[in-house]
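Entry 0007
Protein: UPF0173 metal-dependent hydrolase ACFOUV_01720
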Amino acid sequence: MKISYHGHSVVKVVTDSHTILIDPFISGNEACDLDADTVKADVILLTHAHNDHVGDTFEIAKRNNALVVAPNELAVYLGGKGLVTHPMHIGGSHEFDFGTVKFTQAFHGSAYTEDNGAVIYGGMPGGILLTVEGKTIYHVGDTALFSDLKMYGEMNDIEVAFIPIGDNFTMGPEDALVAADWINAKVSVPVHYNTFPMIDQDPKAWAGKVKTGEGRVMEIGEAMEL
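Output (structure tokens):
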């Protein structure tokens, strides 16, 4: 299995049989190295409904006939737009042919803004525990620091955690260090930073302060093997 990072909160997981995209914010994301018109995906996982996470889901899913797994209200909305969806909710898990998905809590908002300015409620935001080929990846999603992250770390043997550090809209570096300690992943990777000025951070400084496991900055397009 190969996991790669593509700016903001975009993560790609490639297995022997599937390509999985998480929060594919590509168009309008200058940090992303992917091309929304050509990127392949069998599955798209969405943590919540904000436009900088739903991103290019419509176009990618239609072109690839990809399955979209998302919180219930967001999945219903996307299904109404013609996408193939699987709705889930916080605490629920489901075993798919590509692996197991479990949604965790996240303390944030979740609404999609259409081109005409209409705001569509997207249900509760979440994090995603993705278990593939016996390895668990935790995409924490957009969230504040909350104590149940410690419980998730205790309940799961997490290989890699993608943790937001940008501040203002999510937890900042100091809170994210606590989160990394609680989650107890073998590798903690900072995400959701430097996409725009309000969330500018120094990811290398953050990674160097991670005390539990390894803090690792993944450059845009960089991949790791699990």
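Curator remark: The chain is about 20% helix and 30% strand. The first strand starts at residue 2 and ends at 5.
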